[in-house]
Design a protein that fits this description.
Strands 1, 2, 3, 4, 5, 6 and 7 form a 7-stranded mixed sheet that branches. 19% of the residues lie in helices and 39% in strands. By secondary structure, it is α+β, with helices and mostly antiparallel strands.
């Protein structure tokens, strides 16, 4: 349903802050150096991931977490990604298909949604993230969750 005078909306529009768009572009390219450059030194990442709520603080910890999740992949495909502004916060989302040795031989699909805040200096200072976890692609009618999403500890 659309409101009178407004076009139908069927997906993400790129209306997010330029810094959060740069963050997403770097993540999709798996350019973790460029991703780090978009993150404030005092940044926080609060994530609801399998197995639960986890927090990371500081640029290196936050960037390192994304590198842990998506770096070192044997194969990597971007299935979807997008960014938009929601009441002054950036809403980012991405869905990837990948294989990593630590996750086993099967292809994994993962989707994450993040709300981000940008500091006055123009860098990402807060990321609140919800994650599907790495999900093995179904060989049949069921999908199994893979292990080791959080890694071996809370650090990157």
């Amino acid at each position: 349903m659309t409101r009178p005078g407004r076009p139908a909306y069927n997906g993400f529009m790129n209306t997010a802050h330029p810094t959060t768009t740069a963050f997403l572009d770097a993540l999709v390219a798996r350019d973790f150096g460029r991703l780090t450059d978009t993150i404030a030194p005092q940044a926080t990442l609060r994530a609801l991931v399998p197995p639960g709520h986890l927090d990371w603080e500081g640029r290196d910890q936050v960037a390192g977490r994304f590198s842990f999740w998506f770096g070192g992949t044997d194969d990597f495909e971007v299935l979807e990604h997008g960014a938009e502004d929601v009441g002054g916060r950036a809403l980012l989302r991405w869905r990837f298909r990948l294989r990593q040795e630590r996750l086993g031989d099967a292809w994994q699909v993962i989707e994450q949604v993040a709300f981000c805040d940008v500091a006055p200096d123009g860098l990402v200072e807060r990321i609140d993230l919800l994650c599907s976890g790495f999900r093995a692609e179904p060989a049949g009618p069921t999908v199994e969750a893979s292990a080791d999403f959080a890694g071996s500890g809370a650090g990157a």
